[in-house]
# Entry
Amino acid sequence: MPVVELAGVTKAFDTKIAVNDLSLTIETGQMFGLLGPNGAGKTSSIRMMMGITIPDSGTVSLFDKPFDRTSLAHVGYLPEERGLYKKMKVIEQLVFFGCLHGLGADDARKRATAWAERMEIADALQKKTEELSKGMQQKIQFISCLLHQPRLIIMDEPFSGLDPVNAVLVERTLLELKDQGNTILFSTHRMDQVEKLCESICLIDNGRAVLAGKVRDIKSRYERNRVIIEFQGDPAFLKSNEIAEVKNFSGHAEINLKPHGDAQKLLREAAGMATIYRFELLEPSLEEIFIQTVGGAAHA
Amino acid sequence: MRNMLLIAKREYFEQIRAKAFLMSTIGLPVLFAVILGIGYAASLGLGGKKHLVITASNAALAEEIRQQLTADKDRKVSVDVITILDPTTKSNLMNELQNKSVDGILSIETQTAGVPTATYTSLAAGDFMTGARLGRALNDGLVGERLKNAGTKPAEAESLLKGTSIQTFQLKKDGSVVKTSAEASFWKGYVMAILLSMTTMIYGLNVARSIIQEKTSRIFEVMLATVKPTDMLAGKLIGLGAVGLTQILIWLTAAAAMVITPFAAAILTGEYSLHFSWLEGILFPLYFLLGYLLYSSLFAGLASTCETEQELQMYMPLAAAPTWLSFAMIVLIMNDSNSPWAIAASLFPPTAPIVMFLRMASETPPIWQFVASISLMVASIMATLWFSSRLYRVGILMYGKRASLPELLRWLRYS
# Structure
C-alpha cells in the first residue's frame, strides 16, 4: 500500500516554481531518501505532504487516501526549521508535544522518559531547553516527533547538527523503527547515509524529479567505470587506451575508464606488466550519480 | 479544540510562572499609589517649604496678604514683608532670588487712586499654582483692607471674607443620593482608564512578542504538523488573555478586600468619597477583554509579518494613537460626559474601553450605549481576526525580509 503518493504536484511562490509536476510513491515499510541540491524543492514537497502548504495543482495522498488532517495523527514530522520552547523544561516540552499528538499527559510522560533513556539524554529531562547544546536539542526534537508511535516518519535533514556518535545513534534508531514496519522518508545532503539506509530515492532538481526508484536499480543503470588496482611492477599499463583518468599512489591506482572502456582488456594489460594483488570494478556512488545528474555546480 | 486549549494552557502557565507577572501584578498598583501620593503631597506643598517676600509701600495691605498666605497650615509658606524698597534692598532681593534663599518676590505698587498693580518674580516660569494662590490672597487682602478702611471691625471683616465649600451629591439611577467628590471621581476614572489602557496594551503586545519569539525560534513548523494555524492563534489569544484577566481579578479582589478596612472606610465616606459599583466591577474586565482581543488580534497579524521586535515597533503608533486620542479628550469628557464627541468616542471600538470608563467617572451612560459599544467592539474583533488569521497563516512560515504591502495583500489572497 502506498503510504505517501504525490501525483503531478505543482507549487509556485510568486514567480518561483518550487515544485513542478512532481510525482512519487513511497510504499509501506520503506526507508525513502528525498535528495536534491539546495532550493531544489525538497522542503516545499515535504510541507505539502504535511498539509502545511497546499499544492496549486496535483494531489497528495497519505495512507492511500486523499490528504486529510486526521491522517497526521499517524505521522511524525521533524521539520528542517527546528524549534523548541526555550524556557520550558525538556520533560514538560515533550509531554506538551505528546498531548498535541493525542496522548494523555501521564502516557506522554512515560513515553518521553523511556525515549530519553534510549537516546541517552535522561539527565536533561529536568533542564530548560535553552541550557542544552544544539545536538541535545536536536535529539529532543527527534523524540518529540516519535512519542505518538507514528506509522509514517518524515524527517527533513535529520542528521544536521549531530556529531558522528549521535548521528549513528539516530541512524540505528531509524533502522529499528523501519524494522518495526514503519515507513520513513528523510531528506539529506549526506549521500553516504542515503546509500547506507535508503531502499528508494527521489532526486529533485529545480522542482522536478530527475531520478527516482530503488537505489540498486538506479545504480545498475550506470556503468561500472571505476577501477581500483593494487599492483607491484611496471606501471606502464596505466597509459592504456581504456583509461580516461588515473590517480597513481605507488602501487595503488584509482582509475576512471573511458565511456565503454573495457575493464577486462585493462586487466589483461596490467597482468602482462605487473603482479596484480587487487583488481576491483566499482559501481558509481550515489554522490557521483547525484553530481552527474544535477551538475557539478549544484552539489550540496 | 483540544489542541487549542492545550496551547492556551501552555501560554497561560508560562506567563503566570514568570517573575514579570508577579512584579507587574504588585508593581503596577504600587506605582500608581506612589504617583498619586506624590501628586497629593505636592498639592499640599509637602514638596518643600516656600519662602516669599512681599514688597509694598502699603504695610497694612502687605500684612493682610501675608496672613492670607500663611493661614493654610498644610502649606508651608513663610512670608517676609518689606515696606521700604530702596535700590540696594531691591538688588539684594534679586541676589537672594538668584541664590534661591528666596523663592519669589511679590511687588505691589499702590496707585494714588484705583487698583494697585502687582508683579511676581520667581525662578520658576511655570509656577502657576503659586501664582493662583497669590492672586487669591492679593484679592482677599485688598477686599479686607477696603472693608477695614470703610470702618468694618477686623472680626467682622474676617467673618465677611470667610468662604464656604460646596458638598456634592449624586442622584443615582436607583433614586439613592450619595456623597461624591468631583475630584475623587475624576481620579478614579482616570486611574481605571490608565489601568485599562496599560493592561490592554501590555497583553496585546505580549501576543505580538510571543509570535515573533516563536517565529525566531522556528517552532511554528513543528506545531503546524499537529495544529491548525487558526487553533494556534486562538490558543495564544485565549492563554494570554486569561493571564490578563487573572491579573485584573487579583486587583479587583485586593480592592474588594481593602474596602472592608478602616482606612478604606475613611476614603469611601470622607471628603474624597469614592463609589465603586457592581457595574464597574463587571465592565472593567469585560472592556479589558474586548480591548485586549481587538489589539492583540491586530498585533498578531502584524507580528507574523515581522522578523524582529524592532520591525514590530514600526506599527506601535497604530496602537498608541487611539490611547492618545482617548486621553486627549479627558477635559471634554469631564466637562460634559454626554457630549456628542464623548458618546462617539465611547462607541468607536479603538477608543471605546478608555473613553467609556472616563465617562463613567462622572455619570453612568445609558444602557443602549453600552450595548452599542460592546456590539461594535465584538464586530470589529471579528473583522480584525479574519484579517489577522490570514496574515498569520502565511506570515509565520515566511522568513527573511519583512513583507511589503503588495506582499501582504498577496498573503491575504493565498489563504
Notes: The first strand of chain B starts at residue 50 and ends at 56.
